[in-house]
Amino acid sequence: MKLKRPGEWMIAALRAAGSPPADVAPLLQAQNLLGEPLWRPPAPKGFDDGSAAWTEGLAQRVDIANALAARVAASAAPDAALETALGPLASAQTREAVARAASRPQALTLLFMAPEFQRR
Is 1 within the bounds of a domain? Predict the structure, then answer.
């Protein structure tokens, strides 16, 4: 499976939530933490396009997904975000996990970390 690059993943999460960030500083920090600082690719080849370079950051993605979900939960409906982001690509397991979540932030985190959401 080919993973989305950190920037692609964060933008996909923001689009799914339907809420533009009020402050971009946390997003820039998150992108730095995930190894893809904005406008600073390693020279001369740029950022790696292979998934192996991004799999080490999956644990950090969970933390970032939690933080993002907490910020957007008041205005983002998890079921609508799931349909926006994945539609028919969402597996039954992902739909069930999002539906059974204990809270809106948890549901959004589960969506942002779902395998099909991570897939490029």
Answer: no
CB 112 within 8 A of CB 85: no
Tell me if the pTM is above 0.85. yes
DSSP class of 24: S
Give domain status of residue 75, yes or no.
yes
| pLDDT above 70: residue 4 | yes
Going from the C-alpha of 61 to that of each of 57, 65, 82, 88, 92, the distances in angstroms are 6, 6, 18, 24, 22
CB atoms within 10 A of CB 55: 13
Q: Look up the domain containing 16 and give its range.
A: 6-118
Residue 42 in any domain: the answer is: yes
What is the number of structural domains in the chain? 1
Establish if 107 belongs to a structural domain: yes
pLDDT at 1: 63
* Residue-wise DSSP of 65-104: HHHHHHHHTTT--HHHHHHHHTGGG--HHHHHHHHH-SSH
Q: Distance from first CA to last CA of the chain, Å, rounded?
A: 8
